[in-house]
Design goal:
three-stranded antiparallel beta sheet, Tetrahydropterin Synthase, Chain A, alpha+beta, 3 domains, 56% helix
Length: 290
């Protein structure tokens, strides 16, 4: 019975030592076993593992794919048209030992700072070698691939595998927006003025063609009308000539009646003429009464 007070503390110490020597690696993590700050073991497979209690300690790192947002960055393409670029990257820790040496005790936070610097340099280098139109066009995918390839090489140096990089937003700086919009409006107005001028020119050509066509049609119609009228007059005169040639006396009578009709129209006309004039031959004659 006297040994019981000594056994219980011993059991407690053993349990504490046993619990201090056991650690669990989750499937979402990787672990480094450190002894006085030096890496002595790397645990990448999930499960139960052991370490020396009190002498060694365990540091856990994410084994999942991580993402990092790059703060807005102003770049200057070849055409000196400044752009503000937002981007994000996805990465994972590939080499724990190298990662620990690169970032020290800072962990993922320090790694994101290193990655931010890497991507800023890559963005400036790649986007500064092309024009702004290339950045805003379908060539954007090719540019992101160039940025990704450069970041992959530099990421390996700190034990990181860069998986993807994307440009989220590419805008003009706020100070340049008004000037850019004014230039865009001026270009659109110039294009509109050019279109209006071309439209007026085309309309003028159409009107001139229509006017010329109208003159040609009217001229042709008048010419045809004069020809028809001349042919009709010729035919009428031929008929009259034939008819009057058969009876000259009737022709003289018809001419006198026509003269009477034109001269005596009942409008209070006054005529001063000799009664013996030939004009009254058929008025005094009884030939027309037969």
């Amino acid at each position: 019975m006297r040994k019981i007070p000594f056994i219980i503390p011993a059991i407690v110490v053993v349990l504490v030592l046993a619990l201090s020597s056991v650690f669990i690696v989750d499937e979402r993590n990787k672990a480094l076993v450190l002894q006085f700050g030096r890496v002595v073991a790397i645990k990448e497979d999930p499960g139960l593992s052991f370490k020396l209690p009190f002498i060694q300690n365990v540091v856990y790192y994410e084994d999942r794919i991580l993402s990092s947002v790059i703060d807005p960055l102003e770049v200057t393409p070849l055409d000196d048209r400044r752009l503000v670029v937002d981007a994000f990257t996805r990465y994972r820790i590939s080499d724990l030992n190298q990662f620990r040496e690169a970032v020290g005790t800072g962990g993922e936070i320090a790694a994101e700072g290193r990655l931010d610097g890497i991507f800023r340099n890559e963005l400036r280098e790649v986007l500064g070698s092309v024009s702004s139109n290339d950045i805003l066009s379908s060539d954007r995918a090719m540019l992101m691939e160039r940025i990704l390839n450069g970041a992959i090489v530099k990421g390996r140096a700190i034990g990181i595998e860069v998986i993807d990089v994307r440009l989220k937003r590419t805008d003009l700086p706020r100070a340049n927006l008004d000037a850019t919009f004014a230039r865009m409006r001026a270009e659109r107005e110039r294009e509109a003025a050019d279109e209006i001028a071309r439209g007026n020119e085309a309309a003028q050509r159409v009107r001139a063609l229509a006017d010329r066509t109208e003159v040609e049609i009217v001229s042709d119609a008048r010419r045809d009308a004069e020809i028809i009228r001349g042919e009709a007059d010729a035919e009428r005169n031929a008929i009259f000539a034939t008819a009057f040639g058969e009876d000259p006396e009737f022709f003289e009578f018809y001419r006198s009646l026509t003269a009477y009709t034109n001269a005596l129209q009942g409008k209070n006309s006054t005529m001063v003429i000799s009664p013996d004039s030939e004009f009254f031959d058929y008025l005094k004659s009884d030939i027309g009464l037969k």
